[in-house]
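ok trying again, last paste got cut off:
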Amino acid sequence: MKALKTVAVALGITLAALIVIPLIVLAGLFVWLKVTEEQEEDLLELDRDGA
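nice, full thing came through this time. structure:
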């Protein structure tokens, strides 16, 4: 019975990791996109001012 419980816990942890890790990666990409987008907008504004 203890082995079955251990397998169930391991399976639960594995499934949670399969869901949580991609969500963390997507959140990181979203933040990176927002940061780089703001930097590009700043560069475009500087180009317009210089022209």
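cool. The radius of gyration is 22 Å. The longest helix spans residues 2-50.
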